[in-house]
Amino acid sequence: MDASKKTLLTACLLLEVPKTLLIMETIRKEKTFDAVKMMREIRDKISAETQNMTFEELKAYINKKLSESKTKLIGQ
Fold this sequence. Notes:
Strand content: under 5%
Mean pLDDT: 79
Number of strands: 0
Order of helices and strands: HHH
Structural class: mainly alpha
Low-confidence stretches: none
Shape: elongated
Radius of gyration: 31 Å
Number of helices: 3
């Protein structure tokens, strides 16, 4: 066997997929807080409270909730 064929054969053997594949196991942690669930619950509560409000009532509702909140608004 000449050198070029031997080199090609060696390269092919090196590229061969191993007979045993390693499978990575993911570690799953139990969720202690579900942000999506919480967001949906809050949204559903607000929707239920405001569903039949007029625009003026909705503005008053929002202003009341903002005044009750201890969280600072962005830019204030």
